[in-house]
Amino acid sequence: MTVDERVHDALTDLADGVRPAPDPYGRLRTRHRRVQRQRGLAAGLALAAVTAVGAVVPTLDREGPTAADIDRTQSVNAWAERLRNSPVRGAVGSAEPAYVAELERMVAEHQRAGAFRVTAPVSEVNVLYLDDIGGARVAFVAFHLATPDPATSWANSSAWLVARAGAPATELADPLSIAGGGDGLEPFEVMSGLSGKVQADATVALAPDGCVVESAPLPDVDAWRPEPTGSYLIRAAGTERPEWWRVVCDGVVKDERPATRLTRKTPLRAETLDAALVGARGKVDLESAREVVRFAEPDGANILTGPTRVLWGGRISGAKPDANGPFDGTAVLTAAPYVRGGWQIGLDVTYDGETSGGAQAVGLRRWSAQNPIGPDTVVPIRLGESASVLVVVPAGATTVRVMRAGTVVDTASVADDAALVDAPDDPGLTFEALDRDGAVLSVGRLPGDPPVNNEVVSW
In its keyword annotation, does this UniProt entry include Transmembrane helix (predicted)? Predict the structure, then answer.
């Protein structure tokens, strides 16, 4: 992974903390995922990422938990306990109980000495997965906390360990073998391509014993088949595919999500960028467009079902800021087909240097049922929570007019195939592109959130 990719991953994960989550488990899951992906980043890079995004890490008690929040957190912890108490998965773990016991004992010793991320008192260590995958020996361990973490309500913590294939327990338990982990234990745990003492070129996903992990291929994601391994799955470079995973427990779908992709993005080919730029409007900054297109596939892994297209590029100037800061800078607007239908609309802004040291902003991502690709489309996108909306228009348009229930909300002149208008959020807004004679060339509506059934988490 390059330094650019590591910073990009950190920015993306930290941005999750800026967006308010709908429930305690959502916040816990965001924090847990962030910890896993940031391990191995230099402290300076992580600090730069925080500074650039202005992220605020959410906490469980930020607004005070409701009774429903508490019930759900308890349910999640109960399912996590079911995972913790599951039999060890993996051929080595199943065949060598003495090795498992030794690994648990040695990990516990290192934890008591303060060598692992979790430093709170731990009453039990459980090895949940142990096997050799290619040239790596991979283990996943859970730490049962003597007292639930008061800051997060997690009752368990966890860590992935990676060493060379066939490594003895002493080597695998070494804190230098830590490849990832977090402040909690999720009911459905996933590890992908992490590095301890060696690189684990595989993805491992674990569900509680008695549950069944199923997979379904893109683009329709409807032909679900149980994995032959039952309550867990393994994917390597030669076996992964564009797909989604789900976990069925006691006949109920408890988790459904895009599969975690193992492979990293290869260098962007010139012909890929050329194809993405066909029909682009405005004045596209090629370097900004190259970065956006280069990261589009990793960001949209198993969410996007086709190539990313650049709709527009240019400058944003004079937009109203939102609570997270301004939007002035060099922008690229993109679109790509979305899993199960519709289109993802993306806006990425490279802030002006004085604001954030030139760091690329975390992109805005919205969803539209209408195909935005084509020379006659009007594509509006709200700038975060700002009152300002960027509206990209067809050639020949000179004015943008915002309408609501037959009333003009705002108008603005077009420059470089786009305009900025101000309009409070309202589902009834329409955005009209007018020519110099005042004739309406085309009309567009704001994109919204993806359909709610695109991802299920019901632990």
Answer: yes
